Amino acid sequence: MQEGENQVSNKKRIIRQRNTKILATMGPATSTEEIIEQLFCAGVDAFRLNFSHGEHADHKERLAMIRKLEKKFKRTTCVVADMQGPKLRLGTFEEGKISLTKGMTIRLDLDPTPGNESRVCLPHPEVMSALTIGSNILLDDGKVRFKIQEKGDDYLIAEVLSGSKLSDRKGFNIPNVILPIDALTEKDKIDLEAALEMGVDWIAQSFVQTADDVKYAKDLIKGRAALMAKIEKPSALECFSEILEHSDGIMLARGDLGVEIPPEQVPAWQKKIVRMTRGTGKPIIVATQMLESMIENARPTRAEASDVATAVYDGADAVMLSAETAAGAYPLESVEIMDRICRSVEQDELYQKLMAADRPAHIKDPSDAITSSAYHIAQDIGVACIANFTASGSTAQRAARMRPSQPILTLSQHLETTRRLALSYGVHSVHVDVVDSFAKAVTMACTYAYKEGLAHKDERLVITAGVPFGMTGTTNSLRIATVGKNLDKSE
Questions:
Q1: Is residue 487, in this structure, part of any structural domain at all?
Q2: How far apart are CA 21 and CA 338, in angstroms?
Q3: Fewer CB within 10 Å of terminal CB in the chain, N or C?
């Protein structure tokens, strides 16, 4: 069979021309089978259900559409359920809003009566107790700044440091204070159970402040999905190593984080978090405000294009679209331009140099050694792809953290594993039957590499697996194979 024939026979298969993944948020603008399929074909590798909005029935319906796409295109994807977390908001005003001047003072209390220029309700007693004289409150995404001048048993007196107006129910942030608030609210717990019953693959946890928040969520999930910690609080930065240790993945949510820390510090933290997370092999997603102007415009700004490119140059596993695809006027165009930016960066010689310079060098155990050897062999002899067999996904994650230029064909008998790996760099995951010998594994790897369009006849693969098969943490074998007569025609 010639190359052209291979492409025709696989015309319904989705083959990405990049390794960085795209995570897109579902919403009113992307709620039909037609548009979801268009996004999938344009480049979306994983879908986010935002439980801050919409009903459970809406999310369940979209998830069902996504699963239909998996069957139609024979390519696994994953679904991330993003929990809302605590939402800190002020109360209301008699006129719906007030004017502010620098230096004026305003009383914050627990009285739910609509406020005015002299007072307003702050309906969070736990926040009030955590604040001290000198603490700052940032409101309306940082446009308004208060500083606490006086504290009573049930009230605070704040001075206005900046801002000209404030309207009903504006959200607020408290930088540099660990708030005595659970990261999972009662609403989140209900949403969490609903999402797990639907069969989502990842849970994204908002408002993570400490590793204890992550451990509590994992206790509730009980292995039914992977857990992604959202980094959006300064307190999370202080104990990031511990949070990373207990998480299955990280989402850098730069929106709230950029409000609570000085904006000039965000780029450095992005690079540090991406580097640390990549070193573990766990997926790292850079999120929020990536192509925000495309909510209303058909083209991004040059600064936004550069922002997406920077995340790719940093080595992120995935980049995320939020309102651009959930509620924007140009969801398909947003995916298409993000796809083009990612592909352009990955073709840049500088990108390859950056990935090589920051490649994990330490070898912790035999599995790491096998995976590292597979990477170096792949580069030395120019294989078409790196294939691995995995039960838990750890072998694929070890391969992904090396950031190879070749795609990573991952074969697993566990469907949940193949879906979760859809967020990992370069991983093309396939759900397969159990194999019981390395000879059968080689045949299966060559067959799927050929069928999935990752390799042609006479091209070589480097294959890793654990023997005996089906056991986690036993990657101990490596083989170089050539796609040819060993193809299984029954697959």
A1: no
A2: 10
A3: N
Distances (CA, A) of 100 to 93, 137, 146: 13, 15, 11
Give Cα 67 distance to the centre of its chain: 19
pLDDT at residue 465 in the model:
87
Q: What is the DSSP letter of 206?
A: P
CB 440 within 8 Å of CB 347: no
Compute mean pLDDT per 10 residues along the chain, 491 residues long, and list them.
35 79 97 96 97 96 96 94 95 96 96 96 93 94 95 95 95 89 96 98 97 98 98 95 98 92 94 96 96 97 97 98 97 98 97 89 77 92 94 93 95 96 97 88 94 93 82 78 78 54
Identify the CATH number of the domain in which residue 108 sits. 2.40.33.10
Q: How far is CA 150 from CA 2, 110, 135, 153, 167, in A?
A: 78, 15, 10, 11, 23
309 and 371 part of one domain: no
Are 305 and 239 found together in one domain? Answer: yes
**Same domain for 125 and 232?**
no
What spatial distance separates the first Cα and last Cα of the chain, rounded to whole Å?
A: 16
User: Based on the structure, what is the number of domains in the chain?
Assistant: 3
DSSP codes of every residue in 126-162: HHHHH--TT-EEEETTTTEEEEEEEE-SSEEEEEEEE
| Predicted pLDDT at 3 | 36
The token pair at 444 is: 């299966």
Query: Looking at the DSSP assignment, which residues form a beta bridge with residue 227?
Result: 203
Chain centroid to CA 415: how far?
20
pLDDT at 168: 95
Residue 359 is predicted with a pLDDT of 81
- CB burial string 90-128: b at 16+ within 10 A, e below: bbbbeeeebebeeeeebbbbebeeebebebbbbbbeebb
Strands 144-151 and 136-139, bridge-based pairing: antiparallel
Please, what sign has the CA dihedral across residues 428, 430, 436, 441? negative
pLDDT at 473 (0 to 100): 62
- β-pairing, 97-99 with 165-167? antiparallel
Q: Are residues 322 and 196 in the same domain?
A: yes
Tell me the H-state helices in 229-348. 234-238, 240-246, 254-260, 266-280, 302-314, 323-326, 331-346
Distance CA 414, CA 267 (A): 37
Give strand ranges (E) for 335-482: 385-389, 408-412, 427-431, 460-466, 475-482
**Under a CB-based contact definition with an 8 Å cutoff, are residues 479 and 463 in contact?**
yes
pLDDT of residue 466: 79
8-state DSSP, 10: T
8 A C-beta contact, residue 351 and residue 310: no
The predicted pLDDT at position 1 comes to: 31
161/248 same-domain check: no
pLDDT computed for residue 470 by the predictor: 62
pLDDT at site 487: 79
pTM of the model: 0.92
